[in-house]
Write a structure and sequence with these properties.
The structure holds 2 protein chains of 2 kinds. Chain A is α/β, with parallel strands linked by helices. Chain A is built from 7 helices and 5 strands, in the order βαβαβαβαβααα. Helices cover about 60% and strands about 10% of the residues of chain A. In chain A, strands 2-1-3-5-4 form a 5-stranded mixed sheet, sandwiched between helices. Helix content of chain B is about 40%, strand content about 20%. Chain B is built from 17 helices and 13 strands. A 5-stranded mixed sheet of chain B has the order 2-1-3-10-4, with helices on both faces. A 5-stranded mixed sheet of chain B has the order 7-6-8-5-9, sandwiched between helices. A 3-stranded antiparallel sheet of chain B has the order 11-12-13, with no helix packed on it. In chain B, strand 6, helix 6 and strand 7 form a beta-alpha-beta unit. In chain B, helix 3 packs across helix 15. Classes of the chains: A alpha/beta, B alpha/beta. At the A-B interface, helix 3 and helix 4 of A face helix 2 of B.
Chain lengths: ~200, ~400
């Protein structure tokens, strides 16, 4: 734990992302971390936790509401500024690229804020990467399912075994210079339209 | 040579001029490749303008003023070379409140205000809550103006909260708010879904009043002044096209697309032709009147959001750049007002005012531009205007 480490409030409607940011902050020695994933009653929650730093995702349409609240309710006792240092354009850009913003009470040591922001930025980026990987994994999975279905269709309609059906799909794809999944999709679609399982004879 | 312009916008009806400028090729004709980036909050638009992600933005008229007065998080100097239309907001209330106010005439904010004041004065009346989308918005200022002129203190007698437009209809039907003042199509959407009723409109509170503007970083003026002129030309041509009711169908169709408003075409068409009276072109709707800037500034001062000084009022006024607008349209067949500012409320009915077309003197049909309480705003008498509101708890001014 850092001596007198600032308290951090993470407002993120994605609980998974909020959790990895919390995890990162705790690992870096910030043990006063709270998470809000629900927007309802946010004013009272912020007032109760009185954070030194608020980290919020830019995708949240409630950002205008949060800024207004910080402006009028003095939920955070000292005036708040956004980002590490308003003149530090590069870190601001990195934060915006990553999709995160931060509100910081006035007078907080800059190096402290910087560590927190760097942590948030890198974890936000890591999360986006993870999401992209997950997305492509998902589509790879669905591609495999499509190819399997088409393979079974060929097996049934042509009376071929699994390897031969797969081979036919692959050869067709190679000959037509298309991806296997495209050939499989075309086959399944035509079978669905013809309604006869693509029977050829 | 084609110039790339990245422009941020929020999915609202008055993004029409920008959307049509791209879709109908008005920007392309000026050698501008306009890409429109939809955003989720005004704070994001402001920040992305500040770090250079955006070259221009569709933005709430008071926001560039607030930025130049150093009132917002990132102090980036912005200029407003043109406005993006007049009107287009309304005050929508819950069905319950509408019935309690005995369904007042939509065009009579005074009647609605009197009934609301009477309702609030009843013993044990629950405190009503209204939503706006941003503190530095025309919505906030016209709602407050209407309440104040009706003898209701916006800060003491009701609650005003900030909510994103996407959430206001739901908040209304969940009864967590009683009404809101928000831009279209969010009034029409709530009415068509049976969630609420339009109580009165921005145009009824202040006729021909400003709403969104085009903001660009002041630095662009040094880097590429020609592109500002080209953009103003393209957007003016687009505004002209948008204002033709014969194009409403085509405009609604393009705005309904997933990349833009992503709402049913029928709702957008209804909003375009609806009572909120969004005007993209006529009555000099895109002219950046410095009197608009100063009135918005006067409301920031009135509600304690800005400190009044000669330096501040000058900075607010200079944010609006009618000179750039005029220069951009010097060789175009569009009538441009001869003055930079006007007395808001001088025209009780439409009238011809001095204008120039291609430098030749002429006239332009303007107005009405009055406030519903009969007061007017003379930008040359700013101090007197502000003094009248001092110590009124935001209510009717002392004359």
């Amino acid at each position: 734990m850092l001596e007198g480490s600032p308290s951090v409030l993470v407002i993120d409607t994605q609980p998974a992302r909020a959790a990895i940011i919390e995890d990162g902050l705790r690992a870096a020695g910030y043990d006063r971390v709270e998470i809000i994933t629900e927007i309802t009653g946010i004013a009272q929650k912020i007032e109760a936790s009185a954070p030194d730093v608020i980290v919020m995702d830019l995708g949240n349409p409630n950002r205008d509401m949060l800024e207004d609240m910080l402006r009028i309710t003095r939920a955070v006792k000292r005036p708040v500024a956004m980002f590490v240092d308003q003149s530090d354009k590069q870190s601001m850009e990195q934060a915006i690229e990553a999709g995160v913003s931060a509100y910081v009470v006035d007078g907080l040591r800059k190096d402290r804020v910087r560590t927190i922001m760097e942590m948030a930025i890198s974890r936000f980026n890591a999360f986006s990467r993870l999401e992209r990987e997950l997305e492509s994994a998902k589509s790879a999975l669905s591609e495999r399912t499509t190819i399997d279905k088409a393979k079974r269709l060929i097996m049934a309609s042509r009376g071929l075994d699994e390897d031969a059906a797969y081979g036919l799909l692959r050869t067709t794809a190679m000959n037509q210079n298309r991806r296997m999944v495209e050939v499989a999709e075309g086959l399944l679609m035509s079978a669905a339209i013809l309604g006869d399982g693509g029977r050829q004879t | 040579m084609t110039t790339q312009i990245r422009c941020g916008f929020l999915p609202l009806l008055d993004a029409a001029i920008l959307i049509a400028a791209r879709e109908k090729g008005f920007t392309e004709a000026q050698n501008i490749d306009l890409s429109l980036v939809r955003e989720t909050s005004w704070a994001n638009v402001r920040d992305r303008l500040a770090v250079g992600h955006f070259d221009a933005a569709h933005i709430l008229a008071p926001m560039p003023l607030a930025a130049n007065l150093g009132l917002t998080a990132i102090g980036q100097k912005l200029i407003v070379p043109m406005a993006l239309g007049l009107g287009g907001n309304a005050i929508t209330v819950s069905n319950k409140l509408y019935a309690q106010l005995r369904e007042p005439d939509i065009g009579d904010p005074a009647e609605a205000g009197q009934r609301l004041a009477a309702l609030i004065a009843e013993p044990d009346a629950p405190k009503l809550r209204f939503a706006v989308v941003h503190p530095f918005s025309a919505h906030n200022f016209e709602l407050r103006y209407w309440l104040g002129a009706s003898g209701i203190s916006p800060d003491r007698d009701v609650d005003i909260v900030v909510l994103p437009p996407t959430l206001v209809p739901d908040a209304l039907s969940a009864q967590s708010i009683d009404g809101y003042c928000v831009g279209e199509p969010w009034n029409t959407l709530a009415v068509r879904a049976g969630m609420g009723r339009i109580l009165t409109t921005k145009n009824a509170i202040w006729a021909s009043s400003p709403e969104k503007v085009l903001a660009v970083p002041e630095a662009l003026l040094d880097d590429n002044p020609d592109v500002i002129a080209s953009l103003v030309c393209a957007l003016t041509a687009s505004a002209h096209w948008c204002s033709d009711r014969a194009n409403a169908e085509a405009l609604a169709e393009m705005m309904a697309k997933p990349d833009y408003l992503d709402k049913p075409e029928a709702d957008i068409r209804a909003a375009l032709l609806g009572p909120a009276g969004y005007e993209p072109f006529a009555r000099a709707a895109t002219f950046p009147w410095q009197s608009h800037a100063l009135w918005l500034y006067s409301q920031m001062v009135r509600w304690g959001m800005a400190e009044h000084s000669a330096v501040n009022s000058h900075a607010a006024m200079q944010t609006y750049r009618p000179d750039l607008y005029r220069a951009a349209l010097a060789n175009v067949d569009v009538a441009v007002p001869a003055a930079n500012a006007k007395v808001e409320g001088a025209l009780a009915s439409p009238d011809q005012v001095g204008a120039h077309t291609r430098g030749a003197p002429g006239a332009l049909l303007m107005g009405p531009d009055g406030f519903f309480d009969g007061l007017s705003f003379d930008p040359d008498q700013l101090d007197r205007y502000l003094a009248a509101y001092e110590g009124t708890a935001g209510k009717v001014p002392q004359n």
